[in-house]
Structure formats: C-alpha cells, structure tokens
Design goal:
2 strands, 84 residues, two-stranded antiparallel ribbon
Length: 84
C-alpha cells in the first residue's frame, strides 16, 4: 500500500519524505508477519499502474491467492495497460 499512485523513476528524488512514506507503507504485512499480495487494480490519470494490496490471516496464503485471482478475473480482464 502506498499513499500515492506510482510515480516515474527519479521523479521524487528531491522529496525524501514522499520517498520514505512510499517505502514505509509497503511494510505493513511484513511487520505483522502475515501474507500479502499486490494485484493490478487500474491505471492512474498519468498512465502509471495502481496496485491493490491484500493481506490474509497467518498461514492463510491459499485464501489470499484465491482472492487475488478472483479480483484479477473480475476486474483485470478489461483493464488496458500501456506497453512499457
């Protein structure tokens, strides 16, 4: 999870607080010791990807994988991602 959509490489080099917050918000499942997964969830207004982070209970990885797969099947099939 991050507080903002993705930003271009090198774009925030002069803003260390934003860089720090982008890193710190990605650690929640690691700190809690629970499984986590990130799945594509859309495209920002600037054309960069947005991800959805999901977490599950301890040792419940299979439910998490099923939820991520279900989300991608329900939403991801009609999303158009730009070619990199």
């Amino acid at each position: 999870m991050a507080p903002t959509p993705a930003f271009k490489l090198g774009e925030k080099m002069e803003d260390p607080l934003t860089m720090y917050l982008s890193d710190i918000f990605t650690l929640s499942c690691n700190m809690a010791g629970v499984p986590g997964i990130s799945v594509p969830a859309g495209i920002s207004s600037t054309g960069l990807p947005i991800g959805l982070q999901m977490m599950a209970r301890h040792f419940d990885e299979m439910s998490l994988i099923r939820a991520g797969y279900g989300f991608e099947q329900a939403v991801g099939s009609h999303m158009k991602f730009p070619e990199l």
